[in-house]
Amino acid sequence: MTDAAPPARPEARSPRGFADRRGADVAAERRIVARVSEVYERWGFEPLETGAFEYADALGKFLPDADRPNEGVFALQDDDEQWMALRYDLTAPLARFAAQNWETLPKPYRRYAFGPVWRNEKPGPGRFREFVQCDADTVGSDRPEADAEIIAMACEGLRAAGLSDGQAVVRVSNRKLFDGLFDAGDVTDPVQRLTALRAIDKYDRLGWEGVAALLGEGRLDESGDYTKGARLPAAVTATIQAFLGSAGEGSRSQTLDAIARIGGLGAAGEAALTELSGIDRALASMGVDQAAVRFDPTIVRGLEYYTGAVFEAELLLDTTDDKGRAVRFGSIGGGGRYDDLVARFTGEATPATGFSFGVSRLASALRAAGRAEAARRGPVVVIVFGEADMQAYLDAVAELRRAGIAAELYLGRAGMKAQMKYADRRGAPAAILLGGDEIAAGQVTIKDLDAGRALASDLVDNEAWKAARPGQQTVPRGALVGTIRGIIEASSITDGAHE
């Protein structure tokens, strides 16, 4: 009789495009969300939370005519046979919420939101299937000042997130410019138009040669994948080339003048220029620098629902990967005007505009630029010498927590040396030692781990290090909290001096 084979063990692996993040990375994203949210609230936007799932027909954007609508989104069928999908952004849920609650909302309705979104797309470097966004939108205003306010607020949000002047730029254009160009060139097929816009959206990455191929028959990329082209008439492609060439480094008004000189924009294009002029005047009134916000006709944004002004925030910092190779992050946020999204539910035109920070992408970009903030301090660690004195250890950790100091009791079963190594790996500012002698004498020994690290780096001889006992002091038990607080404050001052 043979023994039964052991059950197969699953391989521990993460799904492609879904990243695990530890303390420092999680904290970095939370700081960006907190700081940007504070900007949104100061500008008069209220928070809103919507569910992770929306009905698939409410999302609309990525869904094909298929039995299982999961192209671009992660979808499942509920027990009532309705299809639901994880939200692919925070804007489509807002449109549904606004339509559902319009009668009770203040108008215009100004809201901000943050949270994870999911896209069923091919993952790649810096491109995830799950990531965090932080949005602000105004629903119910068609004024160019509403667009300008969103743009100016995005600039302030970028500074709050950790970028200085000159380290990012918000580029602005208007989708109606291309609507007018297509009208003038008799390009009426909506699919052909959208294919052309998505090609133009790749201009910064592919250059004119790559875009021209996508505007024509199509393009074979480096991986061997073939993308069908828009097959535009040659005259329209030539006009687009001149159009994209109007993007320069001049002022916003100079860029508008250059676009106007190209001509052939039709009524929609002329309306776009009028709207951009209004945005420029409002930005100037708010004191937004020309270098911080530029007009750039190459910006179109990939999502189909944009109807007018579009914005894209570009990182200008030099960034490198973990091997020191230069990488380009490009866009770290974007948005625009989507006047038809709420109307999908109500049938009534409802103007709306907004901006979204790619929080996960911005955090990765700051880290790649060497701009990641110093990791937060770990908790003070109370060392355990034996079971008999457990009450003393529990009392110490509870006293520290009551005083507002992060503290933990070591709950493994390792010895003293391993516990000290654990405290060091946790980034603890100090370790608390309450041995039998200390408890009997009403004292506590505290190892200032920061001071110990600094002194140890100057002592090459191990015996000298042991004799010096760097960073170690014994104080009365009643001085525990005050001594620890002094160590933490001193560490904060030292960290600040090296930022």
TrEMBL record:
Keywords attached to this entry: Aminoacyl-tRNA synthetase, ATP-binding, Cytoplasm, Ligase, Nucleotide-binding, Protein biosynthesis
Membrane-spanning intervals of the chain: none
Subcellular location(s) of the protein: Cytoplasm
Annotated Basic and acidic residues bias: 10-23
Region (Disordered): 1-23
Residues that hold L-histidine according to the record: 89-91, 119, 133, 137, 301, 305-306
Self-association and partners: Homodimer.
Protein name: Histidine--tRNA ligase
Source species: Brevundimonas subvibrioides
Source organism phylogeny: Bacteria, Pseudomonadati, Pseudomonadota, Alphaproteobacteria, Caulobacterales
